[in-house]
Amino acid sequence: MVGIGGWSFLEEYSESGLPEVKNVFDVLLQVSIVLMVVGAVVFSISFSGCLGALRENTCLLKVYSFLLLVLFLGELVLGTLAFVFPNTLTNWINEGLSQKLVENYRDNANFQNLIDAIQKEFRCCGISDKGYKDWSQNQYFNCSTGNPSSERCAVPYSCCRENADSKTELVNLMCGYGAQDIKSQTVLNEKIYTRGCIEGLMEFVKGNLYLVAGICLGVALVQLFAMYLSRTLLNQITLQRARWT
Predict the structure, then answer these.
(1) Cα 39 from Cα 31, distance rounded (Å)
(2) 192: β partners
(3) CA gap 79, 216 in Å, rounded
(4) Residue 146 and residue 31: Cα distance in Å, rounded?
(5) Can you tell me the distance from the alpha carbon of 169 to that of 189, in angstroms, rounded to the nearest whole number?
(6) Residues 6 or more apart from 98 whose CB is under 8 A from it?
(7) Phi (first) and psi of residue 51, to 5 degrees
(8) 103-142, pLDDT tens digit by residue?
(9) How much is the pLDDT for 48?
């Protein structure tokens, strides 16, 4: 992950220079940076646990146990906040993250591929509760009279219900052209998905609630069990050393 993220970062910013970071959204939306950070965290935890157990190093075992505890508490806090304040979380995504994703769609290939994949998977268009109208915030897709873009009043092809030819399977990148100009809601619904991806994601979670809860519980139990094993090994090493002295 660190290698792929680093390669992607160099490919993307070797000519244009370092990305401008103004707030937390600018960091979260840098896919290459997120990959490197997540990869570094996973490597640090795995390295300290593996080498600590292999060499019976109490310092590394303590680091491993501590990092797992921090990770577990972070997940617990985020899960609690999402459960207690669901509207706050939704508004935060609607107002901040969705705008950033839409605005940077054409300026960042990573964003573009990510958003297209999400829209096709969850059959949605746009991010927030405004749905396909989110794309009016993008400089290429907005319907202002002064917009010279050929994609004026369009939406990405991934919003289309049918975006590929049934015979040749070639993707029609222009299938969403003029979608924002369509006045008839019936015609619009036949052409593109109109709901936002947050709504689609929430619908998926509600429809697979037991599966999502089971995965979260399973991950939590694995982390707790790993912490228990590390503390047990640490106590055994300490006890054995005490016998030697």
Answers:
(1) 12
(2) 160
(3) 10
(4) 32
(5) 22
(6) 126, 127, 128, 134, 196, 198
(7) -70, -35
(8) 778 877 777 888 899 899 999 998 888 889 989 888 899 9
(9) 93
